[in-house]
Design a protein that fits this description.
With 191 residues, the protein is α+β, with helices and mostly antiparallel strands. Helices cover 40% and strands 16% of the residues. The protein has 6 helices and 7 strands; from the N terminus they run H-H-H-E-H-E-H-E-E-H-E-E-E. Strands 2-1-3-4-5 form a 5-stranded mixed beta sheet. Strands 6-7 form a two-stranded antiparallel ribbon. Strand 6 and strand 7 form a beta hairpin. The termini are far apart.
Length: 191
């Protein structure tokens, strides 16, 4: 028979109670510290809030400053990844440039999506002071690259990290105003 005094499950001592109390106290303190730390961090600026603060397109084109158009979507992970850098760039350059954000999911911007041939996002279009598009870039851009392009836009020099928008040559109309449409394979059309 076993002796109850030599049992393998000793009765809880005051030292064991003290240990559980300290562990519980530390866990509660860490939980409170974590909650306070999370609540005191500044909220990240969302794409939606940046777009709400951005300049309207018609104002930007008319005010005589160079403009950066950003085509984005809320679901775009590259757009989200660039949001904080763009917020800082807008803060640093906002007095010299217009920043316009156009959500490609908003049908209101379909004419601009078609005009600037947006086929990937984020899609940035750089506009001169008069509103004419001079260059563009597609995809996630490092902040230093974007700043170099914006510096060049402000200085009216060639943008180093973009591709320029070319112009399409006009076909000359004949005296009878007949013109060959390149897609017509030689058939004449009247203008």
């Amino acid at each position: 028979m076993s002796d109850p005094a030599v049992d393998s499950n000793p009765v809880d001592t005051s030292a064991g109670k003290w240990k559980r109390f300290v562990i519980s106290f530390v866990a509660i303190a860490l939980g409170i510290a974590l909650a306070i730390g999370i609540k005191t961090q500044p909220p990240a600026m969302t794409l939606e809030s940046q777009a709400a603060e951005a300049m309207p397109l018609d104002v930007a084109i008319a005010n005589g400053k160079p403009t950066l158009l950003e085509f984005y979507a809320d679901w775009c992970t590259s757009c989200q990844a660039m949001a904080e850098d763009l917020r800082q760039v807008k803060s640093a350059y906002g007095d010299r440039l217009n920043f316009v954000m156009l959500n490609v999911d908003n049908g209101k911007w379909l004419p601009e999506v078609l005009k600037y041939k947006v086929d990937g996002i984020p899609h940035f279009v750089f506009l001169e002071d008069d509103g004419s598009a001079i260059a563009e870039t597609i995809g996630e851009q490092p902040r230093s690259i974007l700043e170099a392009d914006l510096d060049a836009l402000i200085a009216h020099t060639e943008l180093p990290y973009t591709y320029t928008q070319g112009q399409v040559s006009k076909l000359n109309a004949s005296p009878e105003k007949a013109q060959t449409d390149p897609r017509s394979h030689g058939a004449q059309t009247k203008i």
